[in-house]
Amino acid sequence: MNNGLYWFEHDLRLADNLPLQQTIAQIDQLHCIYIFNAADFSTTKKKGAGQFNQRHMGQHRYRFIRQALDDLQSQLHTFGQQLHIYYGEPLDIIEQLNTQFNFTHIGKHFHTGVYERNLISALKIQYPNKTIINTNSYTLYDIDDLPMSIENLPDVFSPFRRKVEKFCEARLPDNALPVSFPPVVVAEQNMPDELPAIQVCDKKLLAKNETVQRLIGGELKAKEQMHHYTYGTQALSEYKETRNGLEGWEFSSKLSPWLAAGCISPRQVAAAITEYEAQHGANDSTYWLFFELLWREFFQWQQLKHGKALYHRNGIQQKSPRGFHNKKVFEDWVNGDTAYPIINACMRQLKYTGFMSNRGRQLVASCFIHELGLDWQYGAAYFEEALIDFDPASNWGNWQYLAGVGSDPRGCRQFNLNKQTQTYDPHGEFIGYWADYAPST
Protein backbone atom coordinates (compact mmCIF):
# COMPACT_ATOMS: atom_id res chain seq x y z
CA MET A 1 0.00 0.00 0.00
CA ASN A 2 1.31 3.47 -0.94
CA ASN A 3 1.25 5.90 1.97
CA GLY A 4 1.51 9.54 0.96
CA LEU A 5 2.51 12.71 2.78
CA TYR A 6 1.46 16.04 1.30
CA TRP A 7 3.22 19.05 2.79
CA PHE A 8 1.32 22.29 2.25
CA GLU A 9 3.37 25.46 2.56
CA HIS A 10 2.98 28.31 0.05
CA ASP A 11 0.06 26.56 -1.71
CA LEU A 12 -2.87 26.79 0.71
CA ARG A 13 -5.54 25.82 -1.83
CA LEU A 14 -7.06 22.77 -3.49
CA ALA A 15 -7.65 24.18 -7.00
CA ASP A 16 -4.76 24.64 -9.46
CA ASN A 17 -2.44 22.62 -7.26
CA LEU A 18 -0.59 20.23 -9.57
CA PRO A 19 1.71 18.56 -7.00
CA LEU A 20 -1.29 17.85 -4.76
CA GLN A 21 -3.19 16.32 -7.68
CA GLN A 22 -0.19 14.19 -8.67
CA THR A 23 0.32 12.99 -5.12
CA ILE A 24 -3.34 12.02 -4.76
CA ALA A 25 -3.21 10.06 -8.01
CA GLN A 26 -0.33 7.83 -6.86
CA ILE A 27 -1.26 6.83 -3.31
CA ASP A 28 -3.77 4.78 -1.31
CA GLN A 29 -3.66 6.72 1.97
CA LEU A 30 -2.74 10.34 2.66
CA HIS A 31 -1.49 12.46 5.55
CA CYS A 32 -1.82 16.23 4.87
CA ILE A 33 0.35 18.58 6.91
CA TYR A 34 1.37 22.17 7.43
CA ILE A 35 4.44 22.98 9.55
CA PHE A 36 5.09 26.21 11.39
CA ASN A 37 8.86 26.35 11.74
CA ALA A 38 9.61 27.35 15.34
CA ALA A 39 12.68 29.27 14.15
CA ASP A 40 10.41 31.64 12.20
CA PHE A 41 9.12 33.07 15.48
CA SER A 42 12.57 33.74 16.94
CA THR A 43 14.87 36.74 16.52
CA THR A 44 17.97 34.73 17.34
CA LYS A 45 18.29 32.48 14.27
CA LYS A 46 21.39 32.91 12.15
CA LYS A 47 19.68 33.18 8.77
CA GLY A 48 17.03 35.32 7.12
CA ALA A 49 15.41 38.10 9.12
CA GLY A 50 16.84 36.70 12.35
CA GLN A 51 20.27 38.01 11.40
CA PHE A 52 18.82 41.50 11.80
CA ASN A 53 16.95 40.88 15.06
CA GLN A 54 13.62 40.44 13.27
CA ARG A 55 11.31 37.44 13.16
CA HIS A 56 10.58 35.75 9.88
CA MET A 57 6.85 35.74 10.66
CA GLY A 58 5.05 38.50 12.51
CA GLN A 59 1.60 38.56 14.08
CA HIS A 60 -0.37 39.75 11.04
CA ARG A 61 0.90 37.13 8.60
CA TYR A 62 0.62 34.42 11.24
CA ARG A 63 -3.03 35.33 11.81
CA PHE A 64 -3.69 35.38 8.05
CA ILE A 65 -2.10 31.96 7.54
CA ARG A 66 -4.00 30.46 10.47
CA GLN A 67 -7.21 31.72 8.84
CA ALA A 68 -6.13 30.19 5.53
CA LEU A 69 -5.42 26.87 7.27
CA ASP A 70 -8.88 26.91 8.86
CA ASP A 71 -10.35 27.34 5.39
CA LEU A 72 -8.18 24.57 3.97
CA GLN A 73 -9.12 22.27 6.84
CA SER A 74 -12.82 22.92 6.21
CA GLN A 75 -12.45 22.08 2.51
CA LEU A 76 -10.46 18.92 3.21
CA HIS A 77 -13.16 17.75 5.63
CA THR A 78 -15.68 17.73 2.78
CA PHE A 79 -13.47 15.10 1.11
CA GLY A 80 -13.05 13.03 4.26
CA GLN A 81 -9.51 14.33 4.75
CA GLN A 82 -7.81 16.24 7.55
CA LEU A 83 -5.05 18.83 7.81
CA HIS A 84 -2.51 18.17 10.57
CA ILE A 85 -0.68 21.28 11.77
CA TYR A 86 2.70 20.94 13.46
CA TYR A 87 5.13 23.31 15.16
CA GLY A 88 8.87 22.65 15.31
CA GLU A 89 11.81 21.89 13.02
CA PRO A 90 10.37 20.68 9.69
CA LEU A 91 12.79 17.88 8.83
CA ASP A 92 12.60 16.51 12.38
CA ILE A 93 8.80 16.45 12.16
CA ILE A 94 8.92 14.71 8.78
CA GLU A 95 11.23 12.07 10.24
CA GLN A 96 8.91 11.48 13.21
CA LEU A 97 5.94 11.16 10.87
CA ASN A 98 7.80 8.81 8.57
CA THR A 99 8.65 6.60 11.55
CA GLN A 100 4.92 6.23 12.15
CA PHE A 101 3.66 5.95 8.59
CA ASN A 102 6.59 4.77 6.44
CA PHE A 103 5.66 7.02 3.53
CA THR A 104 6.25 5.86 -0.03
CA HIS A 105 5.48 9.30 -1.53
CA ILE A 106 6.11 12.87 -0.32
CA GLY A 107 4.49 15.76 -2.20
CA LYS A 108 5.45 19.42 -1.88
CA HIS A 109 5.10 22.26 -4.34
CA PHE A 110 7.96 23.79 -6.29
CA HIS A 111 9.37 27.08 -5.01
CA THR A 112 12.30 29.19 -6.19
CA GLY A 113 13.46 30.15 -2.68
CA VAL A 114 16.84 29.12 -1.34
CA TYR A 115 15.42 27.70 1.89
CA GLU A 116 12.60 25.89 0.11
CA ARG A 117 14.90 24.32 -2.48
CA ASN A 118 17.30 23.23 0.25
CA LEU A 119 14.41 21.46 1.99
CA ILE A 120 13.60 19.49 -1.16
CA SER A 121 17.26 18.58 -1.62
CA ALA A 122 17.42 17.42 2.00
CA LEU A 123 14.30 15.26 1.55
CA LYS A 124 15.78 13.61 -1.53
CA ILE A 125 19.01 12.86 0.30
CA GLN A 126 17.30 11.66 3.47
CA TYR A 127 14.77 9.48 1.62
CA PRO A 128 16.41 8.23 -1.59
CA ASN A 129 13.94 5.37 -1.99
CA LYS A 130 10.79 7.48 -1.74
CA THR A 131 8.98 9.23 -4.58
CA ILE A 132 9.39 12.99 -4.10
CA ILE A 133 6.79 14.99 -6.05
CA ASN A 134 7.84 18.61 -6.52
CA THR A 135 5.99 20.05 -9.51
CA ASN A 136 5.14 23.68 -10.16
CA SER A 137 1.93 25.63 -9.68
CA TYR A 138 3.74 28.56 -8.06
CA THR A 139 4.77 30.69 -11.06
CA LEU A 140 3.04 31.88 -14.23
CA TYR A 141 5.42 29.86 -16.37
CA ASP A 142 7.34 26.66 -15.89
CA ILE A 143 11.09 26.85 -16.19
CA ASP A 144 10.95 25.10 -19.57
CA ASP A 145 8.54 27.75 -20.88
CA LEU A 146 11.03 30.59 -20.44
CA PRO A 147 12.67 31.80 -23.67
CA MET A 148 16.09 31.78 -22.02
CA SER A 149 18.04 29.62 -19.60
CA ILE A 150 18.12 30.61 -15.95
CA GLU A 151 21.83 31.38 -16.34
CA ASN A 152 21.01 33.82 -19.16
CA LEU A 153 18.00 35.37 -17.43
CA PRO A 154 18.17 39.19 -17.79
CA ASP A 155 18.94 40.99 -14.55
CA VAL A 156 16.76 43.93 -15.62
CA PHE A 157 12.99 43.66 -15.76
CA SER A 158 12.22 45.29 -19.13
CA PRO A 159 14.17 42.86 -21.36
CA PHE A 160 12.76 39.96 -19.34
CA ARG A 161 9.22 41.26 -19.83
CA ARG A 162 9.64 41.84 -23.56
CA LYS A 163 10.98 38.34 -24.17
CA VAL A 164 8.38 36.65 -22.00
CA GLU A 165 5.48 38.56 -23.54
CA LYS A 166 6.72 37.74 -27.04
CA PHE A 167 7.47 34.05 -26.59
CA CYS A 168 5.45 32.78 -23.61
CA GLU A 169 1.83 32.17 -22.76
CA ALA A 170 0.79 31.91 -19.13
CA ARG A 171 -0.17 28.35 -18.32
CA LEU A 172 -3.88 27.87 -17.83
CA PRO A 173 -4.92 26.95 -14.29
CA ASP A 174 -6.72 23.76 -13.40
CA ASN A 175 -9.55 25.24 -11.34
CA ALA A 176 -11.38 21.97 -10.86
CA LEU A 177 -11.27 20.66 -7.32
CA PRO A 178 -9.99 17.10 -6.81
CA VAL A 179 -12.68 14.51 -7.51
CA SER A 180 -11.77 12.65 -4.33
CA PHE A 181 -9.00 12.16 -1.80
CA PRO A 182 -7.48 8.96 -0.49
CA PRO A 183 -8.49 8.20 3.10
CA VAL A 184 -6.53 9.61 6.02
CA VAL A 185 -3.58 7.44 6.96
CA VAL A 186 -4.22 6.30 10.52
CA ALA A 187 -1.83 7.63 13.15
CA GLU A 188 -0.31 5.24 15.67
CA GLN A 189 0.31 8.09 18.08
CA ASN A 190 -0.53 11.78 18.15
CA MET A 191 2.02 14.56 17.90
CA PRO A 192 0.94 17.61 19.93
CA ASP A 193 0.12 20.83 18.09
CA GLU A 194 1.84 23.47 20.22
CA LEU A 195 1.06 26.56 18.19
CA PRO A 196 1.73 30.19 19.17
CA ALA A 197 -1.32 32.16 20.24
CA ILE A 198 -3.00 34.39 17.68
CA GLN A 199 -2.80 38.08 18.58
CA VAL A 200 -6.10 39.93 18.15
CA CYS A 201 -6.21 43.07 16.00
CA ASP A 202 -6.55 46.45 17.64
CA LYS A 203 -10.32 46.70 18.26
CA LYS A 204 -10.56 50.39 17.40
CA LEU A 205 -8.80 49.81 14.11
CA LEU A 206 -10.81 46.69 13.33
CA ALA A 207 -14.01 48.68 13.73
CA LYS A 208 -13.08 51.39 11.22
CA ASN A 209 -10.47 50.00 8.82
CA GLU A 210 -11.84 48.10 5.83
CA THR A 211 -8.46 46.59 4.94
CA VAL A 212 -8.14 44.99 8.37
CA GLN A 213 -11.73 43.76 8.16
CA ARG A 214 -11.36 42.17 4.72
CA LEU A 215 -7.85 40.72 4.71
CA ILE A 216 -8.86 37.22 5.83
CA GLY A 217 -6.84 34.21 4.75
CA GLY A 218 -8.19 31.32 2.71
CA GLU A 219 -8.86 30.06 -0.79
CA LEU A 220 -12.55 30.96 -0.63
CA LYS A 221 -11.78 34.56 0.41
CA ALA A 222 -9.21 34.80 -2.39
CA LYS A 223 -11.82 33.74 -4.96
CA GLU A 224 -14.30 36.23 -3.49
CA GLN A 225 -11.79 39.07 -3.79
CA MET A 226 -10.85 38.15 -7.36
CA HIS A 227 -14.54 38.26 -8.30
CA HIS A 228 -15.13 41.45 -6.32
CA TYR A 229 -12.30 43.31 -8.06
CA THR A 230 -13.40 42.18 -11.52
CA TYR A 231 -17.09 41.51 -12.06
CA GLY A 232 -18.27 42.81 -8.70
CA THR A 233 -16.97 46.37 -9.05
CA GLN A 234 -15.15 46.43 -12.41
CA ALA A 235 -12.40 48.24 -10.51
CA LEU A 236 -9.86 46.35 -12.61
CA SER A 237 -10.77 48.61 -15.54
CA GLU A 238 -9.42 51.61 -13.57
CA TYR A 239 -6.49 49.96 -11.84
CA LYS A 240 -3.75 51.98 -13.53
CA GLU A 241 -5.39 55.26 -12.47
CA THR A 242 -6.06 54.22 -8.85
CA ARG A 243 -3.11 51.92 -8.02
CA ASN A 244 -1.08 54.62 -6.25
CA GLY A 245 -3.61 55.04 -3.46
CA LEU A 246 -2.44 54.81 0.13
CA GLU A 247 -5.51 53.85 2.19
CA GLY A 248 -8.72 52.02 1.39
CA TRP A 249 -9.86 48.80 -0.22
CA GLU A 250 -10.85 49.57 -3.81
CA PHE A 251 -7.75 51.34 -5.19
CA SER A 252 -5.86 48.08 -5.81
CA SER A 253 -6.65 44.39 -6.16
CA LYS A 254 -5.33 43.48 -2.66
CA LEU A 255 -4.56 40.00 -4.02
CA SER A 256 -0.92 39.92 -2.90
CA PRO A 257 -1.52 38.36 0.57
CA TRP A 258 -3.51 35.51 -0.98
CA LEU A 259 -0.87 35.08 -3.70
CA ALA A 260 1.93 34.98 -1.13
CA ALA A 261 0.18 32.31 0.93
CA GLY A 262 -0.83 30.38 -2.17
CA CYS A 263 -4.59 30.75 -1.56
CA ILE A 264 -4.74 31.73 -5.23
CA SER A 265 -2.17 31.11 -7.95
CA PRO A 266 -0.75 33.66 -10.41
CA ARG A 267 -2.12 31.47 -13.21
CA GLN A 268 -5.61 31.80 -11.76
CA VAL A 269 -5.22 35.59 -11.57
CA ALA A 270 -3.90 35.81 -15.14
CA ALA A 271 -6.78 33.66 -16.40
CA ALA A 272 -9.30 35.80 -14.53
CA ILE A 273 -7.86 38.96 -16.14
CA THR A 274 -8.12 37.41 -19.61
CA GLU A 275 -11.71 36.29 -18.98
CA TYR A 276 -12.66 39.72 -17.68
CA GLU A 277 -11.08 41.43 -20.71
CA ALA A 278 -13.10 39.19 -23.03
CA GLN A 279 -16.34 40.39 -21.43
CA HIS A 280 -15.59 43.99 -20.43
CA GLY A 281 -12.77 44.98 -22.76
CA ALA A 282 -9.01 45.25 -22.38
CA ASN A 283 -7.28 48.54 -21.58
CA ASP A 284 -4.10 49.82 -19.94
CA SER A 285 -5.49 49.05 -16.49
CA THR A 286 -6.36 45.42 -17.13
CA TYR A 287 -2.92 44.97 -18.68
CA TRP A 288 -1.26 46.67 -15.72
CA LEU A 289 -2.41 44.05 -13.24
CA PHE A 290 -0.88 41.39 -15.50
CA PHE A 291 2.21 43.63 -15.68
CA GLU A 292 2.45 43.40 -11.87
CA LEU A 293 2.26 39.60 -12.12
CA LEU A 294 5.23 39.77 -14.50
CA TRP A 295 7.20 41.73 -11.88
CA ARG A 296 6.43 38.95 -9.40
CA GLU A 297 7.50 36.39 -11.99
CA PHE A 298 10.74 38.25 -12.70
CA PHE A 299 11.78 38.23 -9.06
CA GLN A 300 10.90 34.54 -8.66
CA TRP A 301 13.28 33.51 -11.43
CA GLN A 302 15.88 36.04 -10.25
CA GLN A 303 15.79 34.24 -6.92
CA LEU A 304 16.40 30.92 -8.64
CA LYS A 305 19.27 32.40 -10.67
CA HIS A 306 21.08 34.28 -7.92
CA GLY A 307 20.21 32.25 -4.83
CA LYS A 308 21.71 33.69 -1.66
CA ALA A 309 23.02 36.77 -3.48
CA LEU A 310 19.44 38.10 -3.50
CA TYR A 311 19.80 38.53 0.28
CA HIS A 312 23.41 39.71 0.52
CA ARG A 313 24.31 43.29 1.37
CA ASN A 314 26.15 43.88 -1.92
CA GLY A 315 23.25 42.40 -3.89
CA ILE A 316 23.27 40.73 -7.27
CA GLN A 317 25.46 43.57 -8.61
CA GLN A 318 28.14 42.88 -5.97
CA LYS A 319 28.23 46.60 -5.33
CA SER A 320 28.87 48.21 -1.94
CA PRO A 321 25.70 50.03 -0.80
CA ARG A 322 25.45 53.12 1.36
CA GLY A 323 24.02 53.02 4.86
CA PHE A 324 24.78 51.73 8.34
CA HIS A 325 22.59 50.34 11.09
CA ASN A 326 21.56 52.78 13.80
CA LYS A 327 19.26 51.18 16.35
CA LYS A 328 17.53 54.39 17.48
CA VAL A 329 16.93 55.73 13.96
CA PHE A 330 15.75 52.31 12.82
CA GLU A 331 13.26 52.02 15.69
CA ASP A 332 11.91 55.51 14.97
CA TRP A 333 11.31 54.43 11.37
CA VAL A 334 9.57 51.23 12.48
CA ASN A 335 7.33 53.11 14.90
CA GLY A 336 6.50 55.99 12.55
CA ASP A 337 8.35 58.60 14.57
CA THR A 338 10.54 60.25 11.93
CA ALA A 339 10.63 63.84 10.68
CA TYR A 340 8.54 62.87 7.62
CA PRO A 341 4.75 62.73 8.14
CA ILE A 342 4.04 60.63 5.04
CA ILE A 343 6.60 58.04 6.17
CA ASN A 344 5.17 57.98 9.69
CA ALA A 345 1.67 57.30 8.40
CA CYS A 346 2.86 54.47 6.14
CA MET A 347 4.90 52.83 8.89
CA ARG A 348 2.07 52.99 11.43
CA GLN A 349 -0.24 51.50 8.82
CA LEU A 350 2.20 48.61 8.37
CA LYS A 351 2.74 48.10 12.08
CA TYR A 352 -0.95 47.92 12.96
CA THR A 353 -2.36 46.20 9.86
CA GLY A 354 0.44 44.27 8.12
CA PHE A 355 -0.48 46.11 4.92
CA MET A 356 1.19 48.92 3.00
CA SER A 357 0.48 50.08 -0.53
CA ASN A 358 3.05 49.72 -3.30
CA ARG A 359 3.52 53.49 -3.40
CA GLY A 360 4.02 53.58 0.36
CA ARG A 361 6.66 50.83 0.21
CA GLN A 362 8.69 52.77 -2.31
CA LEU A 363 8.54 55.93 -0.21
CA VAL A 364 9.49 54.35 3.12
CA ALA A 365 12.33 52.34 1.54
CA SER A 366 13.68 55.43 -0.22
CA CYS A 367 13.54 57.38 3.05
CA PHE A 368 15.20 54.50 4.93
CA ILE A 369 18.14 54.41 2.50
CA HIS A 370 18.58 58.08 1.57
CA GLU A 371 17.17 60.42 4.23
CA LEU A 372 17.95 58.14 7.18
CA GLY A 373 21.13 56.57 5.77
CA LEU A 374 20.33 53.08 7.09
CA ASP A 375 21.44 49.62 5.96
CA TRP A 376 18.83 48.36 3.48
CA GLN A 377 18.99 44.79 4.79
CA TYR A 378 17.44 45.84 8.10
CA GLY A 379 14.54 47.43 6.24
CA ALA A 380 14.02 44.30 4.15
CA ALA A 381 14.15 42.14 7.29
CA TYR A 382 11.53 44.28 9.03
CA PHE A 383 9.25 44.01 6.01
CA GLU A 384 9.77 40.24 6.13
CA GLU A 385 8.40 40.19 9.67
CA ALA A 386 5.68 42.81 9.33
CA LEU A 387 4.04 42.25 5.94
CA ILE A 388 1.06 39.96 5.53
CA ASP A 389 2.00 39.49 1.88
CA PHE A 390 5.70 38.82 2.42
CA ASP A 391 7.22 36.96 -0.50
CA PRO A 392 10.98 36.38 -0.24
CA ALA A 393 11.85 37.06 -3.88
CA SER A 394 9.65 40.14 -4.30
CA ASN A 395 10.56 41.66 -0.93
CA TRP A 396 14.33 41.28 -1.06
CA GLY A 397 14.44 41.91 -4.81
CA ASN A 398 12.56 45.20 -4.47
CA TRP A 399 14.73 46.35 -1.56
CA GLN A 400 17.89 45.60 -3.55
CA TYR A 401 16.36 47.49 -6.47
CA LEU A 402 15.88 50.65 -4.38
CA ALA A 403 19.23 50.25 -2.61
CA GLY A 404 21.06 50.35 -5.95
CA VAL A 405 22.55 46.86 -5.65
CA GLY A 406 19.83 44.91 -7.46
CA SER A 407 18.01 44.85 -10.78
CA ASP A 408 17.56 48.61 -11.31
CA PRO A 409 19.87 49.74 -14.16
CA ARG A 410 19.69 53.37 -13.00
CA GLY A 411 20.67 52.52 -9.44
CA CYS A 412 19.67 53.96 -6.07
CA ARG A 413 16.45 55.84 -6.84
CA GLN A 414 15.41 58.55 -4.41
CA PHE A 415 11.91 59.98 -4.09
CA ASN A 416 11.22 63.61 -3.20
CA LEU A 417 9.05 63.08 -0.13
CA ASN A 418 7.49 66.55 -0.15
CA LYS A 419 6.50 66.18 -3.80
CA GLN A 420 5.19 62.67 -3.23
CA THR A 421 3.09 63.91 -0.31
CA GLN A 422 1.58 66.69 -2.42
CA THR A 423 0.83 64.24 -5.22
CA TYR A 424 -0.63 61.33 -3.26
CA ASP A 425 -1.93 62.92 -0.03
CA PRO A 426 -2.50 66.59 -0.96
CA HIS A 427 -5.14 67.18 1.73
CA GLY A 428 -3.35 65.23 4.45
CA GLU A 429 -6.17 62.72 4.83
CA PHE A 430 -3.90 59.67 4.97
CA ILE A 431 -1.47 61.34 7.36
CA GLY A 432 -4.36 62.46 9.55
CA TYR A 433 -5.95 59.01 9.53
CA TRP A 434 -2.86 57.50 11.14
CA ALA A 435 -2.12 60.40 13.50
CA ASP A 436 -4.09 58.59 16.25
CA TYR A 437 -1.45 55.85 16.16
CA ALA A 438 1.54 58.03 16.97
CA PRO A 439 4.18 56.34 19.21
CA SER A 440 3.17 58.48 22.20
CA THR A 441 -0.28 56.91 22.17
Secondary structure topology:
Elements: E1 3-8, H1 18-26, E2 29-37, H2 59-77, E3 83-88, H3 90-101, E4 105-108, H4 114-126, E5 131-133, H5 157-167, H6 203-208, H7 210-214, H8 219-232, H9 239-242, H10 256-261, H11 266-280, H12 284-306, H13 327-335, H14 341-353, H15 358-371, H16 376-386, H17 392-403, H18 417-424, H19 429-433
The helix-and-strand class reads alpha/beta
As for the number of domains, it is: 3
Strand content: 5-15%
Helix content: 40-55%
Find the CATH topology of the largest domain. Answer: Rossmann fold
First-last Cα distance: 61 Å
Describe the main β-sheet briefly: 5 strands, parallel
Fourth-level CATH superfamily of the largest domain: HUPs
The rough form would be described as globular
- By DSSP, the count of extended strands is 5
Uncertain regions spanning at least 5 consecutive residues: none
Lateral strand order in the biggest sheet? 3-2-1-4-5
What is the CATH domain class of the largest domain?
Alpha Beta
Q: So how many helices?
A: 19
Integer average pLDDT: 95
Give a quick summary of the entry:
The protein has three domains: 3-138, 3-Layer(aba) Sandwich (Rossmann fold), CATH 3.40.50.620; 203-307, Alpha Horseshoe (Serine Threonine Protein Phosphatase 5, Tetratricopeptide repeat), CATH 1.25.40; 327-437, DNA Cyclobutane Dipyrimidine Photolyase, subunit A, domain 3, CATH 1.10.579.10. It has helices at residues 18-26, 59-77, 90-101, 114-126, 157-167, 203-208, 210-214, 219-232, 239-242, 256-261, 266-280, 284-306, 327-335, 341-353, 358-371, 376-386, 392-403, 417-424, 429-433; strands spanning 3-8, 29-37, 83-88, 105-108, 131-133. The chain contains 19 helices and five strands.
